[in-house]
Design brief:
Layout (H helix, E strand, L loop, with lengths): L12 H7 L6 H15 L3 H21 L4 H8 L5 H14 L8 H20 L1 H23 L6 H14 L5 H7 L3 H12 L5 H12 L5 H4 L3 H12 L3 H4 L3
Helix pairs in contact: 2-4, 3-5, 5-6, 5-7, 6-7, 6-8, 7-8, 7-9, 8-11, 10-11, 10-13, 11-13
Pfam family, one: Tra1_central
InterPro entries: DDR_Repair_Kinase, Tra1_central
GO biological process, one term: DNA repair
Length: 245
């Protein structure tokens, strides 16, 4: 994979990470597609064994060369490899969550990769709901815990927003059932945060999270008193917040 860096010789890595924009030549796109295709043809067991032991190397290569993210995209967009790779990737990312509170570049990378995993649930709901289900509790609770002690708590709330947006919409009942036990403590914590002294963009994010928790509306009825303050804040807030109501 290091040989693929030949296409980045004239690219400033720090500028690429900051802008998030990746301009690839036709040749590079074809090479990356063929490279990914080799692994897509493997037997599932071999695929899982390879990436279970090399996921750290792959993520490090993506960190140094964002163009390689297309490899992860390909694995997650394939019905055979998607649940396998998503499982390996999400377990790796869970171990790296503490880094999201201090290192901005790393945090941006891990957040992008988390979003890819969450997005794969919509692509292949039957397989990938089962993949995400055992990790949902840890993603939510660790995000809230680490946000309280980290230098950059905003990143953890962005992670929760990405999760809520990806699995919201009423079509992931398996995950909603898994989420229900988390609801009381989560709403209590978010309410406490949005009532505190924070910058406006943080307060807006807390309000949005309160109003977009991924559960059925009927499940929220017992918690309506906890949603009153966020609703009032949203009505007095930006058009984006009003649209969440």
């Amino acid at each position: 994979m290091e040989a693929l860096d030949i296409y980045t010789i004239n690219v400033n890595p720090s500028q690429q990470r900051t802008s998030g924009l990746i301009s690839r030549s036709k040749e590079e796109k074809e090479v990356l597609e063929h490279f990914s295709g080799i692994f897509l043809m493997m037997h599932s067991q071999n695929f899982q064994e390879i990436f279970s032991t090399t996921i750290n190397f792959l993520v490090e290569r993506i960190y140094k060369n964002q163009s390689l993210q297309v490899i992860a995209n390909s694995f997650l967009a394939n019905p055979t490899t998607s649940p396998l790779f998503a499982t390996v990737l999400v377990e790796y990312l869970l171990d790296k969550m503490e880094d999201m509170g201090s290192n901005l570049d790393r945090s941006n990378l891990y957040l992008r990769l988390f979003k890819l995993v969450f997005g794969s649930v919509s692509l292949f709901p039957v397989e990938n709901e089962q993949m995400l289900r055992p990790h949902l509790h840890k993603i939510v609770t660790r995000s809230m815990e680490l946000a309280l002690i980290s230098d950059e708590p905003y990143n953890y709330f962005l992670l929760l927003r990405a999760l809520f947006r990806s699995i919201g919409g009423g079509s992931h009942d398996l995950l909603y059932q898994e989420f229900l036990p988390l609801l009381p403590n989560l709403l209590e914590g978010l309410n406490r945060l949005q009532s505190g002294f924070h910058k406006q963009h943080m307060r807006d994010l807390f309000v949005e999270l309160c109003l977009t928790v991924p559960v059925r509306l009927s499940s929220l009825l017992p918690y309506l008193p906890m949603l009153m303050d966020p609703l009032v804040s949203a009505l007095n807030g930006s058009p984006t917040l009003i649209s969440q109501i």
